[in-house]
Amino acid sequence: MTHEIWKVKARDACAARREPYWGPPLGEGKSLGFRKIDANRGRWIAKLRNHTGHHSRVVGDLTEHFDYDQARDAALQWFKLFESGITDDGYTVEAACRDYVEDRRVERGEACAHDAEMRFRRTVYGTGFGKTPLVKLWTPEIKKWRRGTGLSPSAQNRTMTALRAALNLAVANRRVSSDRIIEWSSIRQHRNAGARRVLFLDQDQRRKLIEHAPGAIGELIAGIALTGARPGDLRTARRSQYEPRTESITFTSKTGPRTVPVPRAAVELFNRIAKDKLPSAWLFSRENGKPWGHSDWDELVREAARRAGLPEGVCLYTLRHSFITQALMDGMATLDVARITGTSLAMIEKHYGHLVMHAARERLNAVNLL
């Protein structure tokens, strides 16, 4: 028996009971019912019958703005999602991120998974944003979360890229409807976020940072400050890559292998950390001898910078930027700086051209022209 539950008078005449009053079918095996709680309250119930059995869910309470028409639309949407294999509307942002990390671990390896894991630990896990179900995730909320991360624009872009990938994977895995993609795909990356780094630490500040970073993190900071290498160059370097006789090291960077001289100021550091290590051992490692994972050092560097009284925003790349800046200001040839740091002349010109011009002008002024 069906009831005219779309009519207010018909609902008012119904007696309160647990069993819903069912309206006319919304399709084969699909129904919308009204559960009368008391004289003033009611609840809309959707029911689906298919080859797997009977399924039902509450689509909402009766309110001034959620009457029969809205309840019917919500029920039809649930039927659509259920038939496409999406049955869990409590799947959260954090759950999507954790599943993405595991997917990266299987598909791309531990390093890729670790990078995503560290980003989500800092910005998603254990937060109110992380507890948000994907079916209730909206564009303004994502933008608010991004602003609240406290990251630089470039770091926000990288973290947003990881989050977007995690949410897209949730869609691909049928954990949420593809209709939700528009909520995060419409968010644009910050423009000019990769502009020239402006935070430069002078020699005194670099020394203070190292002094306030004891142990393994201090060694890693010093290694970058003295070589200008990327953090990943030192993180993945083995003992066999350092040659103390020629005072050189071979980096296997993203730009390809390169052998560069170890400056005199760094020889003592490299000899000390290389002492008694097997060729296959990590040259730079954590206190427990295990290798540094990508971004493991972020908070340690920030804490050391705070103790040293340095400006906010100091990270390992600040040391690389400071090395390149100092080398160019002190008159080192652009080509030499590019080779040592594993970058291109185009990058040097783009981001440090003002320093190159200044150094050239100083050298030019020392020439006896007339």
What is the CATH-assigned architecture of the largest domain?
Orthogonal Bundle
- What is the string of SSEs from the N terminus onward? HEEEEHHHHHHHHHEEEHHHHH
Q: What structural class is derived from the secondary structure elements?
A: alpha+beta
Spans of at least 5 consecutive residues whose pLDDT stays below 50 are none
Taking the alpha carbons of the first and last residues, their distance comes to 108 Å
Number of H- or I-type helical stretches: 15
What CATH calls the topology of the largest domain is: hpI Integrase, Chain A
Major sheet size, sense and barrel closure: 4 strands, antiparallel
Name the average pLDDT.
89
The number of strands is 7
Radius of gyration: 30 Å
What is the overall silhouette?
Answer: elongated
- As laid out across the biggest beta sheet, the strand order is 1-2-3-4
The percent range for strand residues is 5-15%
Task: Identify the CATH class of the largest domain.
Answer: Mainly Alpha
Tell me roughly what share of residues is in helical segments.
Answer: 40-55%
Give the full name of the CATH homologous superfamily of the largest domain: Intergrase catalytic core
Number of discrete domains: 3
